[in-house]
Amino acid sequence: MLDGGPTGGQVLRRAIGGRRRHIAVASLLGMTHQACEVMVPVVIGVVIDEAVTTGSFDALLARLGLLAALFLVLSTCYRTAARITDGAGEHAAHRIRTELGTKVLDPRGGADTGRLPGALTAVATGDAERVGAVAAALSYGISAVAGLAVSAVVLLRISVPLGLLILLGVPPLLWIGHRISRPLERRSEVEQERAAHASGVAADLVAGLRVLKGIGAEQAAVSRYRRTSQDSLAAALRAARSRAWHDGAILALTGVFIAVIGLVGAHLAMQGEISIGDLVAAVGLAQFLLGPFQLLTYVSGEFAQGRASADRIAEVLAAPPAVPGGTATPPRPVTGALRLRGVTCGALRGTDLDIGAGTLLGVVARDPAAASDLLLCLGRELDPAEGTVELDGVPLSSLAPAEVRGAILVAHHDADLFESSLLDNVLAGRDGGPVDVGPALTASAADEVAQALPQGVETMLTERGRSLSGGQRQRVALARALAADPPVLVVHDPTTAVDTVTESRIAARLSELRRGRTTILVTTSPALLAVTDRVVVIDDGAVTADSRHPDLVADDASYRSVVLA
User: Where does the chain cross the membrane (predicted)?
Assistant: First the structure.
């Protein structure tokens, strides 16, 4: 477990502690239910001794009335306890999902490092549900122990040997049950890990379905998912076999224990040490004990699986941030002047670059990795291994990531849309309050997209905007970035799926809308580069050219090969 994060045990304790009062109330009701269950065979034994044997009709009616009251109380307690218990489990799972969501959305990042989105979803759903189930199971376990304790006391009153048999026999059974649950815990952890990976692979393949079809890689994708799914199935079957063996072994031990209680009770009745009514009560209690033991079996299994899931949740919560926090604040207002000095990060090698406030800059990177690393540094999703990136003279590394994102908006090429209306997608980059999205829609040509939809900007989009074409999605994503109206806007290849006529209109309107505010276009589009104030070329990780687009087209053959090819 990484330093600074919770352990699996702490995740479990926090889940339980957050619903402590509800669990206590449910446990109290459950104990009352179990106590009433215990008294049912006892009262039946009394009916036999005091009513059936003596032939007293009045005693029979009185004892039957007592039985009816017992059933009324135990049924009411059971229903109420079950409702509170299930609610406690759901609230505990919800709290864990909220913590995981906060971690994943932390501006410093880190939670998604080495994890597919689908795997994180599996942790936030399946694993959170299992930990929540532990909070629900706890009250059942307490109730079961209370039932065993009350049974032991009652049996001690009937017969000391029978009471001692339970008091001395239950602890070893509980210890054996704990030992038996250990393989289940290990296999449950593997099962959840494989299931999460399979979910992540499936989500990854679905997201890239059009690309896979375009390159004819459907069969390879199916084979990849089949292998992953088979691994997940094998792990799930091993966990199921372990659960079956665990439950079967516990029930077998319980059956033997109950049979011993029945045999001892029968022997005592034959010796005349207890009455027939006491024997009936003892046998009834022995049968009743099957319920608490089954509950303890269930609770043991839930705790075993919950511990495995808690460890997986703790790994996500304890993941170190991709970038540390910061205490400095940018100057107010942000003018948008950027400076890179000796920046080394991934494909960037000692990059130096000055971007004046209000500049519309084009960046052409021969290596796509260099463009990606530049965006990560500007958005402070990564800090350079060497060198500094400054905003208005303040190093980004000294600013909190949230402060950086508030000043510099990086719109990645593969930005997704949400399952919401077109208007909601465009407004997603705003903090709130009324805003006129008309200029952003016009500049990005997303107004034409809205006009083609049945309900205009109120039209609901499907997941990731798949109901739109690639070019339409790009225009809506660009509108979202423009509507946010940040001091510094960095856009990566916003028009690769747009026709040339529309692209030219977007270039002109974008230039006009962003006039006076720093804008960086990382692209090889001639139409976009033509409206920039200047263009820098990054080759082999460093800036190799810095001039206006027409001059570079005229004088730089390598530039022409990249931009005009």
Answer: 23-48, 60-78, 131-152, 158-177, 248-270
